[in-house]
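Hi R.,

Here's the chain you asked about this morning:
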Amino acid sequence: MEIARIAVIGAGTMGSGIAQSFAQAGYRVVMVDVQQAYLDRGMASIEKSLHKLMTKERITAEAKATALERISPSLSLGDAAHAQVVVEAVIEDAEVKKKVFRHLDDITDAETILASNTSSIPITELAATTKRPDKVIGMHFMNPVPLMKLVEVIRGLATGDETCERIMQLARETGKTPVEVHDSPGFVSNRILIPMINEAVYCLMEGIASTEDIDSVMKLGMNHPMGPLALADLIGLDVCLSVMEVLHEGLGDDKYRPCPLLRRMVAAGYLGRKAKRGFYDY
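And here is the predicted structure, written out as tokens:
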């Protein structure tokens, strides 16, 4: 199956970054969201990202203009109907994602691959809502998408070999490095990363060290480019909590219990960078 057109559902941080990466790789992309304001913000984010790459002389002005021209923002999910691959990048809520997958299953060609950028929700669960579970797969990009090379390619229980091979190849053609993993809560990246962040929040809650000192230990002692609490702010504390809840429920082990402080901060709206306040003020 030749891939000429890709649809990205969701114009947020991840969706816009995914759309940009595909467009830079030469694909025509329709980026769908439910409000014009979200689309406008997504396109502005893409333009800003491309402008940074241009000022750093990593792309030319012509390449920037061409990439932008390849992206078509849309308010209609129906505009995804003619894509050969659809990547869902809506909020990390299983029921919302299932609703999107059911709709996509109804409107797209039977051979269209339906991928999810979920960071923790089981692909098998999403695939079960469709009539093509062999064509459903995870394509978990890292944030910020235009700069990060890794893509976790997650095989659900019924994902076909051909589907997996095509998505692995698509990731390579987009300049990414795909890693194939089997379906499990949190996959590999968040199975390891988010519990580390959760443990850092426990250290803060228990008064073991300050926010800055916890991050300094991991940066200076473990050579991490960013401390876990600053990273949580970048990811979004609501996303971190959601992943921990999926791990706790899916694996049934209390070591994955979300830290009470993390719950309180999310309840207060202290979600990190996007809310201008999290473990740090922005």
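One quick note: The chain has a mean pLDDT of 96.

Cheers,
M.
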